[in-house]
Amino acid sequence: MRTLLITGPGGSGRTTVAAATALAAARDGVPTLLLGADRTDTLGAALGEPTGAKPVRVAPRLTAWRPDAAAGFRDDLVAFQDRAGSVLDLLGAARLDAEEVTPLPGAEELALLRALRDAALSDRFELLVVDLPPAPQALALLALPAELRRYLRRLLPPERQAARALRPVLGRLAGVPMPAEWLYETAARWDVELAAVEAVVADPGTAVRLVAEPGPAGADAVRDAALGLAVRGLPIESLVAARVLPEAPADSWLAAPVAQQRKTLEEWHQTYAVHPAAHLGRDPRGPDDLAALGLPGTPPAPAARAEWPVVDRLAEDGVLVWHIPLPGARRESLDLVRRGDELALTAGSFRRVVPLPSALRRCTVDGAALREGELRVRFAPDPALWPRER
Questions:
Q1: Per CATH, the architecture of 310-381 is what?
Q2: What ranges do the domains of the chain cover?
Q3: In what helix (H) or strand (E) does residue 119 lie, and over which residues does it extend?
Q4: Model confidence at 44, in pLDDT bands (50, 70, 90)?
């Protein structure tokens, strides 16, 4: 299954573009699932058909689904209380009933991640179109599975689970309580679920379609989103220029905004595959309006993943160089921290902790430079760890 993630700045028409993209793919003969997470049914408003907690067929070969975040949150909390029952009883805690639970902030995003995992496991569809939140929240959401897995491995290392049978003895010897069985089982289950979501995001068939209105604000938003996606290693399949105005006479009040849009579009065409979506003079509603936008469905081939190659320059300079593409990054907003076998990379407001390639784990950081939108990190072999030549 191919996965197309739709995001962009708030108010840019992401949901409309997601609906139009999914409808176009379905009309091309591709069985498509359209996934959304808004609490209000903006997806149904664009499609002209209501959507909800159960997948519903809204057009031939097109199914829409908007998971119920409240129900999922209640089910998770009740299940957690059941697993931690002995601890809660020991603390004298009063349990919550499902009916009195209100979803906390972030419940919609977690419901979307779970639905993304479930949808990817389905064999009914060939394309999954996901209406993501605005770009800053979407980037944080896409980073969440990998970050949570890293936290779990740090807090409850898998290798310590081998000592489950010894925990009661160790607890008595050490005089401190040892983690209960349910805690390790819960961590293991979460790790499996998060790994499944992470696999969808990292799959070669997953790409991002950005949406923005052509203009100074839209250009800034696209530049920022492109940097965040580069930090995550996610390719941009194309860029939808939303609400493109028609050409206007020079003496018209539209002449200035049209010229502004034209300038931004020319800049975008130099970097991205751009799909202009015409301004209809109204909010698109229903299949006819969505088709009038003229957006393509699934791309003909998966977008190439940005590679982070390690270049061997030992013979010339005595170093290995890690090339990390970061288009739009600024030198003053970059930060690198080496911690064990990981590198914490910060670019602007985006941060990612990445494991070092095996060859670089036996090296020390020798310097870094940003050139032409690419960060080049130099690593010098550590004599104590690097294999000696015979």
A1: Sandwich (2.60)
A2: 2-69+104-292, 310-381
A3: helix 107-120
A4: very high
